[in-house]
Amino acid sequence: MESVNRQMKLMYIGSDDVVLSKLKGLNGRVNLVHHANPLEASSWIENNGLVDGVVCELELPGLNGLDYNDVFVNKFDKQQKIPYILLVDEKQPEIIKKAIQQKISDVYTKPVDAETITNRVNFLKVLTVHMSFNQAEENQNVKVYKTPFFKRTFDIVFASLALLGLSPLLLAFVIAIRLESKGKVYYISKRVGTGYRIFNFLKLRSMYPDADKRLKELEHLNQYQSEENVEENNVVEEDVEENQGTILFGDEEEVAETTHIKRQKNKQDKAFVKFENDPRITRVGHIIRKLSIDELPQLINVIRGDMSIVGNRPLPLYEAEMLTTDEWTDRFNGPAGITGLWQVEARGKSSKMSPEERKGLDNKYVEIANSSYSFWKDIWIILRTIPAVFQKENV
After folding, report:
1. Helix axis angle, 257-269 relative to 232-242, nearest 10°?
2. Beta strand 186-192 with 198-204: parallel, antiparallel or unpaired?
């Protein structure tokens, strides 16, 4: 299986200064290759080799983005393993239809968020590698999870009735959040669900408005940070001296390939972020988290089809992008959910749940979700969730 832990090489084809500026703003995370037209792009690929992903404008001089996709696939990527993202100025159903027919990876309407696009390219790339590896190992087609009709029907009915019944409680806490601190009463973050699909994840705000800015300074409080990570710098220095292999050139440094891989592994070990007695949480936030009331807006996500009632917790982008090995990516081959197996298993335990334990439970639920008795297991998890909400531990 090829390595996916190196810096992603992304090609942007187009001349939109705003898009280009946003992509350049990801300096250090993305090795950006820019060409204004398809002819230059093809010439560069012929001389330098393939990239990890292509972001292409629909409107281009000469060939448009749809036509160039045909050229790109036939000439460079016949198996369509390289994510190809098409950018359009406005939603056009006929363009989307053609893009689907051509199996273009995704279509984004401008204005676009550069981080969302690059993460989408990265996830699609990782998923393609993962699925190809499984096909080679098992000599069979990989089945991408699709929510069964009965589970989807249950999700819609359950979420709709729950929203209706809990609306007075939801309104009361919305008012309490607004009275305690300034800012929006809800919180939207980009999350990664089934098949690495990115969506807007809804919650009631339980933290102070500047909580994200304080994340780095509180990193030493992370429950999941292992002792080995504290010694990362010493390990890196030793590896540089001993390594006789490939040297990778970045924007600000030269680094041995083995050192880079170890750094990425350390990042993966710290991918799950969780604090004990988190100082970023407001007083109302502690209450709504304790009773899981902050999760109620996710019932809207369920109705939209982003999530199910029961499934693996959808991860933030900064966490999901680090989970690139086979055993980690298995968790994305099942439904995303409000509650799940590891949540009910973690409640009531005196010890902290490690990333390995959480990974194992996520992967176990993927197996359950693809089995014939998954519905009854979901009911069992829901029934266990109700008393778990009132237990002491926050998970």
Report:
1. 160
2. antiparallel
